[in-house]
Amino acid sequence: MKLKPLTIGLLLSSTFFNAHAITPDTYYYQPSLGCDAGGVADPNKPLLALTKHSEQSFALEFKEDLFKGASEAEIDYILSLSSGRYETSEVEGRGKDIYDKDYKVNLYKSNVSAKEAINLFFPMLTVSERLDAATNLRKKLEKQSDIVTVTTHLNMATIDPDQIFIYSFYTEVQALSSDSTLFVINHYSNIPKNLHKRGHRLFPFTLKGACFKRQEQS
Question: What ranges do the domains of the chain cover?
Answer without folding.
Answer: 14-214
